[in-house]
């Protein structure tokens, strides 16, 4: 046995029990045992070069081959064993092989690349996306196998996709397709198109101007055309015909993406009369009035000549208001607002009359193509926060929430979303009142348990024993479900209950804690906290300043409803195409908007962080 193999005895012996279970490998087990006592005569390495990145056999087979080889060839077999374990989902055994290679790996580019690819997959599985991407940073002129480049670009595409970087993701899937046989490219091209759908028009225009690759530029132009002309199907048909003439060899020229083909056949809504059902009197009249102002503001901006009629569901039964709107010739209906009224109207609604309801129904209804739902729900914000933590590479979040109806709903939605993303549940701690907040924080961070241990030590060894409490180190993020006053009380409790030598977890919260209107000194107490909200409420945007001039006394909650009304009117012409074209997104006041195939509007919110007393929006 060659000396180099003796270095691998601890690794290979660990697998010997598994190898013994495989018929014909008992001899290898005995060989590994003999290696432990000292080197024997070297075994000559196989002459055939092993291709990395392609698994055609079991991990045990590759380990057996490694035991009979030496040098770079042995490392190739070990990397193939790690690849085989990875592909069958056994990351722990793959990690053990990689750990054994760390200090002795050859500098040959193929071996270095395969090692980093496998480590990157380990990091991605652990949600460490920044680390996974950093591992893929190597010279693009390395002479790697075709299979290795496929692994490389597939990994980069998936990592960028999970990190909400649509253009780099699309570019990676595009390059991946260039390394694949024609009959294997479709999945990569579908992922490419899906990623381009996440980019906005401005990003696409910039990328088009920078592109030197005709095929890649063709994809960018196609995505831009699809977004820009989505509400003008007749114009889009002509633009696509021109694009096909200009790009006759493009893979999409003869076979347009399926959702784009469908969007071409769908006619946009062009109503002349729009009815709006809102409770303009009664207990929620102030909220309804904010939505009404948003609708009227956008209607005046667009100047489409459409008529709008408002029906007060505070005075009229919602079903009666709907019937009256139909009798009056409404061709599109916005509302109602309250969940109970949505249920009433849905029970009698004409499936052919398009409606954008301003809440989700409380009971199940048929999924009608012309019915849409737009809600500013706290659950949606909690889902958005969970997705953000996942994109940031957080792996162990904790939730602190009030034991109220809203607090429990948001905590449940965060947990459900996190489990969908990671298959792991989230630890949730509730507080009943402001005077129980500190106790909830200490319990969540396991500070009480640490202090109890210190008390036991002092009792055993005397009160002069010096010890500092320890807070838990397994959590890396805390989602604080609270309004701004609760957050202002909670954050100091969290700060002082993190041990001085521990890495503090990152704090995240929702729009309920946007303290933009507070003094700078008060906001300084929240430094480091990440906040999600409608983008226009996270900075001094032009829209924010203009609307503040018109309505200086509006609260942030009223301004969010104003944005909802504003976007509801702005989307009328776009909803039909947005439903069938998954890549069609609109930047509204309430966020970046998309429509699911069930007609539900989803929002991508903005993010900002408190720094030196200012809420600074991310770009």
Automatic annotation (TrEMBL):
<dbReference type="GO" id="GO:0009252">
    <property type="term" value="P:peptidoglycan biosynthetic process"/>
</dbReference>
<keyword id="KW-0732">Signal</keyword>
<keyword id="KW-0133">Cell shape</keyword>
<keyword id="KW-0573">Peptidoglycan synthesis</keyword>
<dbReference type="GO" id="GO:0030234">
    <property type="term" value="F:enzyme regulator activity"/>
</dbReference>
<dbReference type="GO" id="GO:0008360">
    <property type="term" value="P:regulation of cell shape"/>
</dbReference>
<protein>
    <recommendedName>
        <fullName>Penicillin-binding protein activator</fullName>
    </recommendedName>
</protein>
<dbReference type="InterPro" id="IPR028082">
    <property type="entry name" value="Peripla_BP_I"/>
</dbReference>
<keyword id="KW-0998">Cell outer membrane</keyword>
<dbReference type="InterPro" id="IPR007443">
    <property type="entry name" value="LpoA"/>
</dbReference>
<keyword id="KW-0564">Palmitate</keyword>
<keyword id="KW-0449">Lipoprotein</keyword>
<dbReference type="GO" id="GO:0031241">
    <property type="term" value="C:periplasmic side of cell outer membrane"/>
</dbReference>
<dbReference type="Pfam" id="PF04348">
    <property type="entry name" value="LppC"/>
</dbReference>
<keyword id="KW-0472">Membrane</keyword>
<dbReference type="InterPro" id="IPR011990">
    <property type="entry name" value="TPR-like_helical_dom_sf"/>
</dbReference>
